[in-house]
C-alpha cells in the first residue's frame, strides 16, 4: 500500500473554489483502479490548511492517477488557489 | 473521526534511534481508548522524512493521548532526533 499526503496552503479568498475543485478531483479519482482512499481534510485550527490523504494499492495505480485526465486538468487550477507550493509526500508504511 | 499527521525531518545520523522511539510510542498508543490508527510512514524519496498518521474516535481520546505517560516521555526524546520542528496538523474530514 502506498500512502500519499498532499498539503495545501489555500488563499483565504479562494477556499470555496479550492473545495469545489477538490470535490471534482476526488469524485473522479475514487473511480480509479487501485484507489483505496482519497479524502480531503481541513485543519481544525488553521482554516486555510487542507490535506488530501490517499491510499493506493501500488505505484502503477498511483502513476496512472498522476497521468489521468482529471488530475492533469484540475491540479493546475488548484495551484492557482494556494499561497505556496503544494507539499506532496509519497510514503510506505514501516510500523 | 479526528485525523492527525505528525511530520518529522530526522537527522540522517539518528534515524535508527528515531524509529526505535517511534516503535515504543506506537506500541503503547495503539492500546489507548479511541485510537483507531497510529502508523509510521517513511517518505519513499527522502529517507529522512517520516510521518505518523493517526485516526482518533474523538478529541477526548486525542487529548488523553497528549497527556499519556508514554507520549509525554517519548516526544521530548524524539525532538532530539529531528533537524526542524515537528509539523503537527489535526484535521477533520470534509470530503
From TrEMBL, chains A, B:
InterPro entries hit by this protein: ABM_dom, AI-2_Isomerase_LsrG, Dimeric_a/b-barrel
A GO term, aspect molecular function: catalytic activity
Pfam families per record: ABM
Domain ABM: residue ranges: 2-90
Top-level taxon: Bacteria
Classification via PROSITE patterns: ABM
Name listed for the protein in its UniProt record: ABM domain-containing protein
Organism field: Cetobacterium somerae ATCC BAA-474
Amino acid at each position: 500500500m502506498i500512502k500519499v499526503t498532499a498539503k495545501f496552503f489555500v488563499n483565504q479568498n479562494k477556499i470555496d473554489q479550492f473545495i469545489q475543485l477538490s470535490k471534482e478531483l476526488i469524485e473522479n479519482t475514487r473511480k480509479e483502479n487501485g484507489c483505496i482512499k482519497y479524502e480531503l481534510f481541513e485543519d481544525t485550527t488553521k482554516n486555510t490548511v487542507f490535506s488530501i490523504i490517499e491510499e493506493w494499492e501500488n505505484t502503477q495505480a498511483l502513476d496512472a492517477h498522476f497521468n489521468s485526465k482529471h488530475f492533469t486538468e484540475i491540479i493546475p487550477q488548484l495551484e492557482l488557489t494556494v499561497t505556496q507550493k503544494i507539499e506532496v509526500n509519497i510514503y510506505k508504511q514501516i510500523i
